[in-house]
Every structure is written in structure tokens, then in C-alpha cells.
Amino acid sequence: MNITTEQMRFWSPEVRELEPYTPGEQPKIQNILKLNTNENPYPPSPKVVEAVQKVLANSADVLRLYPDPDASELKQAIAKQQNVPVDTVFVGNGSDEVLAHIFKAFFVQKQPLLYPDITYSFYPVYSQFFGVKTKILPLNDDFEIVVDDYKQANGGIIITNPNAPTSIALGLSAIEEILQVNPNSVVVIDEAYVDFGAESAVKLVDKYENLVICQTTSKSRSLAGLRVGFAIAQPHLIAALEAVKNSFNSYPMDRFAIAAAVASFEDQAYFEAQNQKVIASREKLVSQLNELDFKVLPSSANFIFASLPSKDAGELASELRERGIIVRYFNKPRINQFLRITIGTDEQNQRLVDTLKNEILV
């Protein structure tokens, strides 16, 4: 859609300056292999489908009524699965909405918010949207977070762990070091991919009153289509998030999302089994790409970040697309020679490898 400057006169001045987040492509093409948006290649638990069907069966009675504004059943299910008190849980429509509330609740400060130069690209969008001052700190040459850089005056810290798009995880001792040095700032650890090999910092919440953990059901629980995210923090921080939520959307979660997510959290065995499949497939794919001379960063996520020194990454992404395979290419400084590749099933990964070996790198 082409909007003229004249038409934009109706927009708020702040909106005219916004640079919105660009989500990964959701192609309408048939027979495409999507390895670009970090979706889980496996379906959610069968119990999720059963839970949604129950809502549908009772639709005449329940869909005309508002859902529980507190999503109490879901909070209880998360609390039980995470082994935390229920008053330390906050829920929202995907972790992106939860993150929006986090930015509004904690990061509009006189001092700048600190985060890495290579990280989840929604952070600068939210910073601009909410008027948050920022100070961007570069990852080192190995694309790792430099803990000492976060030992300076700030109005908050947010770190994705494992990081996106690099896939590299930060250890708990490093997270604790950051927390200890910043007792008067809120430190947010965005754990969207934590279930694929990193260690969660949820266990630190009881110890640190300035820690917020953000997670999602989109990746490891295969519920990207239902948009369910959550935060875990001490009750005084949860209260701030609830205040923001109830000033924006007091009924954020619909009955289908609540029922499905509850069922997912109750089926821990399925959750763990599917994650192990993804991890095993990731390690196999890394080995295969190494044999093709790719450089692959160490991954604790359901994706890898890889470069091929002998070929331009943008050209490689285009050639893969021509053959029906979509990966994520970021045309940005420092990472414009890397591709982010979502882990698919073994069969999907093999299609990628065979295409590279037999059609592109010949």
C-alpha cells in the first residue's frame, strides 16, 4: 500500500516516525519449505486439539461470554509446570504483547535501556514506540554478550537467551552477575528459545527482585497460531504488568488460547519428547552443514545461524528460494553474511542439505 505524505497528515507525529517490525514471511505458495520463522515442525500435543474441540462443543454457551480476564486456569497451569507461585505469573497474547507491557511498565526511565546490537529486532521498535532511551552494546567478535558492558548506569536491561538470531546462550552465572551489579534496574531475560538447550533463569526469580523472565508457547509448544506468552517475576513486578494490561486490554486472552495452552502445559511428556527431536535434528544438520564448509555458530535454539565463506549469504538465500526453500536473511551490518535456518524435521532438513549439495554448491 502506497501512502502519500499528504494522506499521512492524519497520522500522529509519533506514528509517522515509526519503523515497524518486519515479521518473517508467511508465503502463500504451495509446497514451499518454510525454514524462516522458527516455528516448530511438529504439531502440538493431541491434548491441545481435544481442549479446543471441547470449547467448540460448548460454543453456544461460552463464546457469547467474555473469557476470564485473569486467565486464572492458565496461570495455575504455568505455575505448576514452572514450579513457581501463581502470583509470579503474567500472561498475554504471545510474548510480543508481554514484552510490550514490559517496555511500558519498566523501561520508560531517565537512564537508557541496555541491549545488544544483534538481538531480537522488536526491541528497537518497542523502544521507539514507547519513547524508551537506549544504549546499544556490541556483541564481541564471536557474537557473545560481554557481561562487563552491562555494568554501567541504566534504566533497564533486556537480553534474549538464547540470543536471536545468533542462537548462542548465556550461562546462569553470567546472568546472575548482571543482576547483582544492577539491583535497582529491571533485568529482563527473554527466553523464547530456552527449551531447546539453554538453562532457564526462572530458578533465579525468587532470589532477585529485579528479574523478569519472558517465555512463549509459540516455539517449543507448537502454538504459534494461538499467541500465548507469559512472564515470571516477583509479585511486585507482576502487579506493574497487570496495571499496564488492564489499562490497555482487560480481556487479552480468548477461550481457545487459554484452553489449548493449559492442555499443553499439562502434557509435559509430549513437550519434552518433541523438543528432543528438534535438538537431535539440529545437531545432525549442523554436522551436515559443516561438511559443506558452512560456519555454524553454537546453537541452543530451534534454529542455527550459519555462513558460507565462499558464497554471499543474500545470493544463497535467493537461490534457495528459487528452489522452494525459504530461510531468513538479515541485510544488516555484521550479520549480512549469515542465514538463520529454522530446524525442520529430519526429512525437511535433508531436503535443504540435498539442495545445497546437488543443485547450488556444485
Note the topology.
Elements: H1 13-16, E1 33-35, H2 46-57, H3 59-62, H4 72-82, E2 89-92, H5 94-106, E3 113-116, H6 122-130, E4 134-137, E5 156-160, H7 172-181, E6 187-190, E7 211-216, E8 229-233, H8 235-246, H9 255-266, H10 268-291, E9 295-296, E10 303-307, H11 313-322, E11 325-329, E12 339-342, H12 346-360
Parallel strand pairs: 1-11, 3-4, 3-5, 5-6, 6-7
Antiparallel strand pairs: 2-8, 7-8, 9-10, 10-12, 11-12
Helix pairs in contact: 2-9, 4-9, 5-6, 5-8, 10-12
Explain this structure.
With 362 residues, the protein is an alpha/beta fold. Helices cover 38% and strands 14% of the residues. The chain is built from twelve helices and twelve strands. The protein has a seven-stranded mixed β-sheet, sandwiched between helices. Helix 6 links the parallel strand 3 and strand 4 (134-137). The longest helix is centred in the last third of the chain and has 24 residues, at 268-291. The chain is globular. The mean pLDDT is 95.
